[in-house]
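Section 3.1: Structural characterization of target chains.
Under the original work plan, the team committed to producing a structural model for every single-chain target entering the pipeline before any wet-lab resources were allocated. The record below documents one such target. The sequence was received from the expression subgroup and is listed exactly as submitted; it comprises 407 residues.
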Amino acid sequence: MSRDERVLWIDAAAGASGDMILGALVDAGAPFAAVKRAIASLKLPGLRVAKTATVRGAVSATKVDIRVAGHDHDDHHLHERGRGHHGRSFRQIRGVIAGAAIEPAVRDRALVIFRRLIEAEGLAHGLAPDAVHLHEAGAADAIADVVGVAAALHALAPDRVIVSPITTGSGTVACAHGLYPVPGPATSHLLSGVPLSGIDAEGERLTPTGAAILTTIAQAYGGPPAMTLSRVGHGAGARDYPERPNVVRALLGARRAGAAASEVVVVELTLDDATPQLIAYAVERLFAAGALDVQTTSVQMKKGRSGHNLTVLARPEAFDAVSRAALSETTTFGLRFRREGRIELDRSTQAVATRFGRVRLKIGRLDGVEIRAEPEYDDCAAAARKHGVSFDAVHRAAVAARRGRTR
């Protein structure tokens, strides 16, 4: 039977910041204890996390406060405000997050969010990513916001995340480098290709950290999707605005899975000085880092040299690990990446008994109806070697066993 798809819709019509998104996810059922453990494992001095119930515009909401000793944390004037903190490079932020006792999926999602923030800052200020230092968004409370959101999402485990059109606010905002129009330069780059609400709201309603989180986790944008609603959460901002409740809303529900749409990151690199042995080992390490698929294509490169193009597919949360593997295990000096949509059948794995032993099959379903069953290569190859028969003989036996089982 097809498993229902868990869907999370995030409403950012009032804007968003890291702690507002975190509050909404906790209010929608993400265990606060798990979020606190993840943040505590960052080993950042003076960090304190608290949760309180509050009201914004007559809407009851959860306020998550992440404070560092001597630093006031105000969501719409929070770490994006420049309070004399030293800037952190991505390497330093990665060191803090990589040293935490958190799930690999939580770590990788948090790192992808910060990598996108670094790239946006670089575009905004004409700097290479390695030269960017995040002053406000690199502060301890911002790191905690991002890791907390990643931990909350890991606990809720949605199959699909949809984000509403986003409200940015208007006017100007004071940052570490002076006054900027709203949305700020980095936030504007993060919002490229993202639908904006057009709601007229004075002041900065969307922080760079909030923009980086939403545009990284969103697999689609739009209004509430068709689903059976199970949980509703509201995350409170620090201020109470007169025109609308200052909350991020999270709706969690389920819908019957069919051909599920998702997003992948496509990583590409070209090699003209790599041996076949090095490429084979690099492919192995890319899969170990979380790649969904790796393709190698022969190409003709500059100066008449033959080379190879490596194309890697990965889920967005595995991007950091996959890109590190690509850079460290090959001879490339750089890589390209882009986000693409992908549609998948609902999948499961089942085993059948054949005269050559147990063989697993990958089952594909559309709207709950099985349309494809494909024996796993590794099982067929192992059985063929063990019994001294052809791969095709084992493959046909597995298909026949599955067909007999479903009659």
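The radius of gyration is 24 Å.
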